[in-house]
Write a structure and sequence with these properties.
single chain, about 200 residues, alpha+beta, 3-stranded antiparallel β-sheet, 12 strands, about 20% helix, about 35% strand, globular
Length: about 200
């Protein structure tokens, strides 16, 4: 039997994204954002409020990076979600983490996180139902420790955090259970045979 749970953001898993940008003085700010998604081969959309300090910085600098939070850095990732740059302008310094300027965009890469998407601001979409920051991905950089022999990022080595909106937990997905564009092949062949 199903039970009604009311209105809630009932999507699992959600990413744990570290969004970083410089302010007008070159100060690093980073926030934790779960509401973000790839929206094109070279585009990503962040559904973040315009009042965030990071959102203001992105509008000013026209660039940002998105790092994938991982299990080894969960404490700082969560801190970046708890502390707000509007009330704690030095929260990045207080975390003890390090940043280097991207070679591709005017934004900081948080060096502790193993994967970073380096983005130029493509547009900000604002309407009655949506506020989205859309970035054009101009480069992805990754620590060698998370790259597999085929030169791609290995999810098993990455230990990326995923966010659970039901219980507000962090998890790590590290078990491969199938291959995309292959697991449904038998059903596809059956469906095509029935035409």
């Amino acid at each position: 039997m199903r039970k009604d749970l009311g209105v809630q953001p009932a999507i699992f898993p959600m990413p744990v994204l570290m969004v970083a940008a410089y302010d007008e003085n070159g100060t690093v700010n980073v926030m934790n954002a779960a509401w973000g998604m790839i929206c094109g081969h070279d585009k990503i959309a962040l559904f973040i409020d315009e009042r965030h300090k990071t959102t203001k910085n992105i509008r000013t600098s026209k660039a940002f990076t998105i790092s994938l939070a991982d299990k080894d850095h969960m404490d700082a990732a969560d801190f970046y979600g708890i502390a707000t740059g509007n009330k704690m302008p030095d929260k990045f310094v207080k975390s003890g983490y390090h940043a280097e300027k991207s070679a591709h965009v005017n934004a900081p890469i948080i060096t502790e996180f193993p994967v970073a998407l380096e983005c130029e601001l493509a547009e900000v979409v604002e309407n009655e139902n949506l506020h989205a920051v859309v970035g054009k991905i101009v480069n992805v950089s990754a620590d060698e420790k998370v790259i597999s022999d085929n030169g791609k990022i290995d999810p098993m080595k990455l230990n990326a955090l995923i966010f659970d909106q039901f219980q507000a937990g962090y998890y790590v997905a590290t078990e491969k259970v199938g291959q995309a564009w292959s697991a449904g092949k038998t059903l596809m062949e059956t469906a095509e045979a029935e035409k």
